[in-house]
Design a protein that fits this description.
Blueprint (H helix, E strand, L loop, with lengths): L14 H8 L7 H10 L19 E7 L14 H4 L18 H4 L23 E4 L4 E4 L3 H4 L5 E8 L7 H7 L11 H8 L10 E4 L25 E2 L19 H21 L4 H23 L7 H6 L8 H15 L4 E6 L14 H25 L6 E7 L2 E2 L11 E2 L3 E6 L7 E3 L1 E2 L6 E3 L2 E2 L1 H11 L15 H4 L9
Parallel strand pairs: 1-7, 1-8, 4-12, 4-15, 5-6, 5-7
Antiparallel strand pairs: 2-3, 4-11, 8-11, 9-10, 13-14
Helix pairs in contact: 2-9, 8-9, 11-12
Length: 491
Amino acid sequence: MSQFVERNIPDSSDSTRRAFLQDMGLGFGSVALASMLQRDAIADTVPDQLAQLAPRAKSVIWLFMIGGTSHMESFDPKPLLNKYAGKTLEETPYGHVLKSPYLENERVVAFDPNNGFIRTTCFPLQIGYRQRGESGLEISDWWPHVGSCADDLCLIRSMWTEDSNHGAQLQFHTGRHRIDGFFPTIGAWATYGLGTLNANLPEFIVLGNPLADCCGGREAHRANYLGPQYDGVPLKVDPENSMPYLAPEQGVYVEEQRRQFDLLKELNQLTATRNPDDDAITARIRAYELAFRMQTAIPDVVDLAAETQQTQDAYGLNQAETKTFGRQMLTARRLVESGVRFVQVYHGYNGGAGSWDAHKGLKNGHSRMCKQVDQPIGALLKDLKQRGLLDETLVVWASEFGRTPGSQHSDGRDHHPYGFTVWMAGGGIKGGIAHGATDEVGFHAVEDRHFVTDVHATLLHQLGLNPRDLAIPGRKRLERELGHPIHDIIA
């Protein structure tokens, strides 16, 4: 069977059967159960339009830094900020960036270009940078491990977004401004358009604490109108308690639960015999079987004791600063290795806007945050490559926007939606290149500008999907929502 399948949202009219199944008390949380009950619903078809693109990637690892990482102190250094430190942008030869047509001709919500950063002074770089790898990509000294993988990176230095506040976190995942409502996320669209690679595991798994409610919350990994069967499934990196909502009730042995599943299967098969046209019954039988298999498969995947000490040390599991994120990165590799399609990893949750936010204390804050993730991400890229998995795994690193070239509170930078950096690696993407550019002081994306959904479209293209073919009857998608693949970065 082709991996390209059209997913149909099942009819949920038979509330009596659903209530019976959900009330059986087998230890499932209601949200997880709703997802599993529908995941395999209704027979899949294989439309020709979804099979037109040859896939270059099988899986995606999506890394999201919550709060807004400074592009200038990470992957787009701007040394002129050092030269003109203490001067306003209007006092430099680059004051023309303040008259850019982008400021007037594009919707940016909750953002006043005259508030703060125009009248503040240029803030010098808070860390050094150097050329990395044979490609010579300039990357800051806060990212030495990721920088050592420079020849596998594609830096997209020309991103922009509409939301200047932290609602941009949700917009980065859905393509829509929060004032528009909630919409399917990129992970949901990817799993909606593709079949599973491993019948024992979810197609879309989420690691790390998600966004705070202020900025989108769990809607950043949900499927909205596609249905809960395409939601991301939260996973704790803990073999003893990785999915508590899937655990049997206390005191229930595996053999006893197996008998419970068998009884449910018999009851559903009797109902299916009486209602041969009810595909939802077959789907529910398969969903419960999946849930039972997951209880064994998931703990095995997150059991990192199976990894060599050398591998664990490479991911930073032996250091306090890197242990938590290192475990998530190593688990992400094991998940895609086991056939999970989409692994979404959050970093920087603090109950609010996110720990990457840097209105003040940028040097101390970014130094600490980079220390937590740099080594684990570098280890992930090297590990995937060494195992031959990088060619078929697309790794995406992103944050909701960049930071201003001007200072805020004397030692920080404000939110900046007009130009920032995202990078990709693997999955058929060119390595060792920088695509697009911001101006000389990092204010505007001025060369090969890309709205955030161009990242989505590129990701789907590499998976073999065209976002314009992923349609839902009665749901009209905006052109901005669909994006365009960045063909110049595709190998």
